[in-house]
Amino acid sequence: MIRRLWKRFITPFDPMLMLGLGLLAGASLIVLYSAGDGSFALVGKQFLNILVALVALWLVSSMPLHYLLRSAVPIYLLGMALLVCVALFGEVSHGARRWLNLGVATIQPSELMKIAVPLMMAWYFEKHEATLTLKNYFVATLLLAMPIILIARQPDLGTAILIAASGFYVLFLAGLSWRVMAVTLVAGLAAAKPLWSMLHDYQKHRILMLLDPAQDALGKGYHTIQGMIAVGSGGFLGKGYMNGSQTHLDFLPERTTDFIFAVFSEEFGFIGALILLALYLFVIARGFLITAEASTYFTRLLAGSITLTFFTYAFVNMGMVTGILPVVGVPLPLISYGGTSMLTLALGFGMLMSIQTHKQLVKT
Amino acid sequence: MKLQAELRNHQREIYLFRLRLLLCVGLVLAMMLVLLGRFFYLQVVRQSDFRTMAESNRIKPMPIAPNRGQILDRNGVVLARNYSGYTLEIDPSKVSNLDGTIEDLSKLVTITPKDLRIFKKLKAESHDYASLPIRSRLNDEEAARFAAQQYRFPGVEIKARLFREYPFRETASHLIGYIGRINEQDKQDLDEEDLEANYRGTDYIGKGGIEEHYEQELHGTTGFEQVEVDAGGHGIRTLSRTSPVSGNNLVLTLDAKLQEIAEQAFGKYRGALVAIDPSNGEVLAFVSKPGYDPNLFIDGIDTETWDELSNSPDVPLNNRILRGQYPAGSTIKPFMALAGLHFGTRTPEQTIHDPGYYMLAGSSHHYRDWKTGGHGSVDMFKAIQMSCDTYFYGLATEMGIDKMHTFLSQFGFGDKSGIDIDGELPGLLPSEEWKEARFHQKWFAGDTVSAGIGQGYVLVTPMQLAFAVSIIANDGVAYRPHLLRQLQPSGKPPQPVPPVQPAFDMHLDPDDLDLVKRAMVAVTKPGGTAAWAGSGAPYDIAGKTGTAQVIAIKQNERYIESQVDERNRDHAWFIAFAPADKPRIALAVLVENGGHGGTTAAPIARKVFDYYLLNKVPQPLQAPAGKSGGEHD
């Protein structure tokens, strides 16, 4: 009896993915204990986040594929409607308008769009699979551009760029021709200069600040420098668990969220970073395998985009902490403290697992 | 055959897809290698450099807060300034016995119970246990006495700070606003605006009035020093320094002397006054009585004083100019007259007979005129001059609420004036759709009758009435009311004031305007409702009195001022501009519970005009005996 229930429980899970995700989530708890200066408060909350994400993961991965397919349009429309609501009646706090107050809780619809956009685009390509023309790519780009414009206007440029990346992966995997990509790139470069001159001075200043962090010694530039010192001083073997001076002497900013990788690297060194990178690569490799074996056009595109987006998040975060990318607010997936990003990731991986475990049913 | 082609197509599609996927795999691996290379470079190649940097990581950037810009009136009189002084600050996280420390400190410097209350409140509000002031504005002697004993007080420090000061105290308090300590909400807002770096080292932020609206202009840019610190975090030496840039000085359109005279003219009355230069929209006086002393808020107001201010029946914290919404009363009549002429509902010559009341066809309800027995035969000129209610009841009924709404909204009624202070309320200009949406009720004919004399649903703010009368004064060409005349970057020579563009032109008929203006002049001449306030003026005042009812009077009762509780007495209005032929100043005055516009509100306006036009500083005026009871409106 218990055996049967257990079996029923684990059937939707993909064992390989679960192994990778579990190891990363475990690493998160370990690093958070150190980043929180040896307090269990944050570790406990993150454990709860993981449990909630696990439930979501199970629910989504148990869903048959046609459910996923059918949910694409409603989820996308809901997300768009919420984004429009935010633009019209969102909570305004001076400049930014990102939140929607539902009375019980405030929500940030741009998080939902991280899942909804690739889902919708994959659905669209599936629908027109037999007769794909340039026009279809154009329509798909529109489906991508509308939420991005709304999110960029909030303004939340970081999220907009990451969603743009996830949508671009769908376009690329759907076979967008090289010529179109080249033409768009050239046109984009040509438009950059007139666009730049249209920006306000303070906007220019902000972009320049991203490119040259040393200019901003009180803000993000200082963060980058302290992050690099933490990573570099970790050396080959690290300073040892709970022994990072950058972390524990309060030089590292946002050390439980965006800069958690610096805590990890300071204490576990190059070897630790190598293992972490290998873990990410393992999860990504499994994702690619699922993508390659996926049975329908829809699932191939979706699985590919989810995997590549996951990689992008990890790459952008680690690049930012080690000073090769500008500081944008992107957490390290599965490691950084935070319930929302954990949940969004669980939805994505749930879809991946559903694609893997349900593919036999569709093949015939 | 066909099936085969499709299959082959499918195979080709999968082949292409996998090719692209393979490209992605390659890209991912390449980028992973980039990361790995970066890790190797930082952690292996440059390990010793970074290890040295981490070990000697003693360099912290210390912010240097910029000087906040000053606020000046149009003639350069300072309304808000800074001065430097010493504060005694405690970092509670470094003090083991806080109460004991404070008690010891109080033997060296005076610490009043109020200082203590403010400190406790700050401590409760702050999460990050920063250093908090226990006493501000130490004098030199106190500072020296503490400095000699400092070794006894770890965690307690003297700091040189800039303080904000409002030398005019209560005068123009609603306009200037104040600065207060940055609270959690402010911090969040700054965070979202990406301004938190520029506010490192700043403890105060503008709250209310000009201080809030122009916060970004006033604040300036924070500088910083790279400071080498010892293990305890104390600075040893400065390695480099980027100077802060002071905030801009703001030159306002306000005339501080005029403001003082206007505030004094109110005497004990509560109310509001806005004076505008109609030719450019510059706000010359901005009075909301009673005011409050903004200096009280700077160090964080203590709970008792706060309660006293916020629970006072006089609501001194309420900005009556922008947030007080009152019935317009008879001040709406000149605008109604222009509407009647515009739509052809009335000609100037048309007369009506006023028996002292107005009745709608098919109803027995009497809409009373303020004058028992009525004004007799009345044309438009006389209707404005004597403020005949019956004339405007009929005009409104024949015109209808929709036309009235269309025309009056052009004057800005029912909408914010757009002045450069936050928190303005829009008033209310009713319409059929509005009532349907708000109450799910049909519009009744009686609603239009009351609206015709500015009662019923009609609500206006003093700001709106001042804006509207300034549009009449300027022959229909409207300038947006504004308080900022000029930004003056500190340390730069003053620039000429940039010209202001009109907001819109109503294109009013010159003949219509002429009639209404002449009738408004007659209001302040013998026979008009504000005759006394206009008497002896060497210039013509075009004005209109008004009364806003506070309590409803039953059909068969009369309003007798002496029998009504003071706070339920009518509010008095007066709107005016002068000189009538070439207006230099337009204003709206509201006197709460002041009774009749002609006796309480108009004399305040007269004092303001006399100073602004004749440079005459008022002597205490006295109302002529026996005159006050008979006049209405």
Which fold name corresponds to the CATH topology of the largest domain in chain B? Answer: Beta-lactamase
* Average pLDDT score of chain B: 86
- Overall, the morphology of chain A is globular
Q: Can you list the strand order of the major beta sheet of chain A?
A: 1-2-3
The rough form of chain B would be described as: globular
Strands, helices and their partners?
The complex is a heterodimer of chains A (364) and B (633).
Chain A: H1 2-10, H2 15-35, H3 40-62, H4 65-89, E1 91-93, E2 96-101, E3 106-107, H5 109-127, H6 134-152, H7 157-173, H8 178-198, H9 201-211, H10 220-234, H11 245-248, H12 260-293, H13 297-321, H14 339-357, H15 359-363
Antiparallel strand pairs in A: 1-2, 2-3
Chain B: H1 2-45, H2 47-55, E1 59-64, E2 71-72, E3 78-90, H3 98-105, H4 113-125, E4 132-138, H5 140-149, E5 156-165, H6 173-176, E6 178-181, H7 184-192, E7 204-207, H8 209-213, H9 215-219, E8 223-229, E9 235-242, E10 249-252, H10 256-265, E11 271-277, E12 282-289, H11 303-311, H12 320-323, H13 333-343, E13 352-354, E14 357-358, E15 367-368, E16 376-378, H14 380-385, H15 389-399, H16 401-410, H17 432-439, H18 445-452, H19 462-473, E17 477-478, E18 484-488, E19 504-505, H20 510-523, H21 531-534, E20 542-548, E21 571-578, E22 585-591, H22 597-614
Parallel strand pairs in B: 2-10
Antiparallel strand pairs in B: 1-8, 2-3, 3-4, 3-5, 6-7, 8-9, 10-18, 11-12, 11-22, 13-16, 14-15, 17-19, 20-21, 21-22
Helix pairs in contact in B: 10-22, 13-15, 13-16, 13-20, 15-18
What does this structure look like?
The complex is a heterodimer of chains A (about 375) and B (about 625). Chain A is mainly alpha-helical and about 375 residues long. Chain A folds into two domains: about 130 residues, no CATH class; about 160 residues, no CATH class. Helix content of chain A is about 75%, strand content about 5%. Chain A contains 15 helices and three strands. In chain A, a hairpin with a 4-residue loop joins strand 2 and strand 3. Chain A starts with a helix and ends with a helix. The model of chain A has no long low-confidence stretch (mean pLDDT about 85). Chain B has about 625 residues and is of the alpha+beta class. Chain B has two domains: about 190 residues, Penicillin-binding protein 2a (Domain 2) (Alpha-Beta Complex), CATH 3.90.1310.10; about 350 residues, DD-peptidase/beta-lactamase superfamily (Beta-lactamase, 3-Layer(aba) Sandwich). Chain B contains 22 helices and 22 strands. In chain B, strands 2, 3, 4, 5, 10 and 18 form a six-stranded mixed β-sheet that branches. Chain B has a five-stranded antiparallel β-sheet with strand order 12-11-22-21-20. In chain B, a hairpin with a 5-residue loop joins strand 8 and strand 9. The longest helix of chain B has about 45 residues. Chain B is globular. The C terminus of chain B is likely disordered. Classes of the chains: A mainly alpha (about 375), B alpha+beta (about 625). At the A-B interface, helix 7, helix 10, helix 12 and helix 13 of A face helix 1, helix 2 and helix 7 of B.
